[in-house]
Write the structure tokens for this entry.
Amino acid sequence: MSKEEEIIISKTHENIYINKDVTITKWVFPKHSFSCNIFLDDNVCFTSKQLLNIAGINGTIQFYSNKKTTLKLQLGIIFKGKNCLEIRNILAKNNSNSVIKIHAWQEDEEETILKTEGVIAENTKANNFLEEIKVLNDKNHKITCIPNLVVSSNEASANHNVTIKTFTEEEIFFMNTKGISQKKAQEIIKEGFLNSMLQ
């Protein structure tokens, strides 16, 4: 059974070492720019499945996966203000599994840049990497996604995709027929979209 812990990033440059199975229940980000390296020891399972509110950050979270590690990152993120967040995962050894799924929404009219990158090192075997980013946008809310995947091994399975969706007329019309206002309908759609990451 994994231990429940919080990740608190307080320094400009932070190194965190994980040597046992862990489930992250809370992330705390600083107001200043930051770079956080998270090192996963052999045979460790790192899980984080939650809804985050992020406001005005500029930072990088970089995972280093070792032999037979498992990374499960499922995040619903509400961004406020101007943000730049990069999430990277480097699979440097063999037999690692990595799943990064993010559903994101920009709450105001500022812009967020969301960068994601997966790196599978050369001379490694049997690594699996999946990166799935979904963004809910409309004309007044904007998130720019920059995905990247670098695979230097011929013996790996790696996939990534980005989906941009918006509120459809059909969704809004259906809820209007049930007596739900347009504003409330959009709120319901947004909550369902974000909270689906918690399942």
About this structure: The mean pLDDT is 91. The chain has two helices and 13 strands. The chain has two domains: 3-166, 168-199. The two ends are 19 Å apart (CA to CA).
